[in-house]
Structure prediction request, 638 residues.
Amino acid sequence: MVKLIVDSLSDRYISRWLIFTFDIFLVVVTLMLALLVQSNFNFPDFSVASFLLQLRVILVIYAGAFLFFRTFSGIVRQTSLSDAYNIFKAITWAFVIILAFTVISEHLQSTVEGEEPTVPVLVMQYLLLLVSLMGSRFFVKAIYNQIIRLDQKNQIGVIIYGTGTAGVLTKNTLQEDKEYNYKVIAFVDNNPYLAYKTLEGIPIVSYFVALRSSYVKRHNIKQLIISIPNLAPSKKKEIIEICLKLGVQVKVVPALNLWINGQFNAHQLERVKIEELLQRDPILLDSKNVYRELKNKVIMITGAAGSIGSELALQVLNHSPKRVVLVDQAESAIYTLQYELSLFAKEKGNYDLIEFIVASVKDRFRMTNIMETYRPDIIFHAAAYKHVPLMEENPYEALMVNVFGTKIMADLALKFEVEKFVMISTDKAVNPTNIMGASKRIAEIYVHSLANGKTRFVTTRFGNVLGSNGSVVPLFRKQIEQGGPVTITHKEITRYFMTIQEACSLVLEAGAMGKGDDIFVFDMGQPVKIYDLAVKMILLYGFKPGVDIEIQETGLRMGEKLYEELLTNSEDLLLTPHPKIMRARVSGLTLKEVTKFIDELTELIIERDEFLIVQKMKEIVPEFISNNSVFQVLDKKG
Prediction:
């Protein structure tokens, strides 16, 4: 009943002038108490006339301080430490003024004895007023919070990882939240000196105690909130993995600069992303080497509006280029990139250095014109079609973009004496089982055959990029948010993953160290089962796989294989100065041999016979064995 009344009045607030009047009343009461304490509560000795004379000046000064500092304007039920500090400033300034006035009056002996309060009385009143003003507000806040938590049915037990300022703010925010019934069970800290202590009345427990199954069950803990913004990725991953096993949802307090108007509320708590479970500790890069490579250079990026291209553009802008030319055939995507980069570049004052161009790498005439205009020193060639099933059904387009588009850009790099041409390849080019992978391998072979000229050609090869357009993570996220089911092609399918930022950083590093004729392979870490990925994502959303969200197998798609590889059977790895980058030792074809194959492909492209085209691709790339595809018949014939 009480809660219903409180809910009905929750949008109504006490008038600030009523609060002001109450504060003035406390000034009167605390002065009276101070005088009574001075007289040892001897009421006959208490002079009402003297009290009123003393009150006159004190009341005016305190009222003026309340008005100046606006101590009455805060919402009482949401009183914070900043409100308390504001009250402290108002009372202290008023006390100092009254004290100075009293001392001067006594010194000048300008008033009748007994009309001015003594210093002990003023100090006593100051302390009483400080306690009563702050205490009354926090008392109302505590009572309100207790009333709105009368319904214990939907209580959410929470532990907060971190005892710093952010942890305390998180605790206060959760306790004030009206929509969800949070109960903060404990703070978690690994500092042994804090064990068994309390913070604002909440116990502090060690990491090993808080994440025990018995502790979680005993206190019915539903969530763990990480309030440490710079927690090491390895530690965060360890915490998340344990919480997933315990059925505890993990959320993260956002960085301070993401708080709305400097304030934090429970709605801003961020769900842990699967990327945080897959990412590794930050990669140490030789930024000086990359800076020397890019400084005052004209950099061209093809496929600039894609996931890799756009991140490359962002990172290149941090290395003082002379100009950045961003090329993509997708009009809407490059328009979006233009908007996003404008916000970033204007802060750094280099927006005028960026050129946004809508063009296709398949168009030799257009790309020649762009090369003549901007004369790039370095080209990062990220333009490509990458979706395996689509390219399996459209081999013509796969060849036109991935092979002939790359050939056009590589030929132009030679013609205009570009210093370095860096091609972005894929692990699907290794022992390919699909059109997309085979087309990228042919592009690798062509680029590798051009290495003896003035232009240095570098190929970078890596696996799946987390969060990239069309990747599995955004798809799973969308399926979970829609209530499932989450679809996987096969329970045993395994892939390598790295973050977009990590991949692009390694591309820049590899590009800087490449001397020509290089195929660099990135350390992708441990392979991940897509089924395990789906299970963890469902758990991160607070659901139970197979109960709340179903996982369905749909069967391998056209051209898809269970396991990806980073090297062909004929390749070996060589170490480089960077521990995350290896050089593949490749026995490539000569330029004459490759040119012959490309010319033959060109003739077949004109005829548009897909089976003849794919047959020629298999001749160029002997390890290309189709899987789950109509082109498997070509392998059987061989």
Notes: The CA atoms of residues 175 and 182 lie 6 Å apart.
